[in-house]
Amino acid sequence: MKLRIKGNSLRVRITPSEMVRLLESGRIDETIHFAADENAHLTYALEHAPGATAISVRYSPNEVAVVLSSTEARRWSSGGDVGLYGETATARGPIQVAVEKDFACLDKNDAENVDTFPNPHQGAVC
């Protein structure tokens, strides 16, 4: 899972195997450690919940989780859409949220594109 934070936007990209785990377990997560201190880490997660109606972000100390509707997550996983997009309110205005499929890079070889979704532009002629 890849996490990108820029300004007031948050983007998560997931691979096909992560999509399977998300649908099976309801949650995928990863943790990054910033220093030797045990509390110097951030866990970022993607979840789906039956009661969720729109994309949202849940924050607690050392964790940020993007939450999707279970219905939308299943629809997205089996369709051709690149991602799910929305915004959620914060105390300082809305945050833009994107959850996308991680596509193969056109300028990388097969070994570097392991566990990626097929790029829809593969084989396109300019």
Note down, in words, how this protein is organized.
This protein is an alpha/beta fold. The chain has a single domain (2-112), classed as Gyrase A, domain 2 (2-Layer Sandwich), CATH 3.30.1360. The protein has two helices and eight strands; from the N terminus they run ββαββββαββ. It has a four-stranded mixed beta sheet with strand order 1-2-8-7. A four-stranded mixed beta sheet has the order 3-4-6-5. It is globular. The relative contact order is 0.20. The model has no long low-confidence stretch (mean pLDDT 88).
Keywords:
4-stranded mixed β-sheet, globular, alpha/beta
The total tally of domains equals: 1
Mean of pLDDT = 88
With strands numbered from the N-terminus, the spatial order across the biggest sheet is 1-2-8-7
The CATH topology is given as Gyrase A, domain 2
The helicity comes to 10-25%
How does the helix and strand content classify structurally? alpha/beta
Short description:
This protein is α/β, with parallel strands linked by helices and about 130 residues long.
Reconstruct the topology from this structure:
Blueprint: E1 2-6, E2 9-14, H1 16-25, E3 27-33, E4 41-49, E5 56-60, E6 63-69, H2 70-78, E7 83-88, E8 95-101
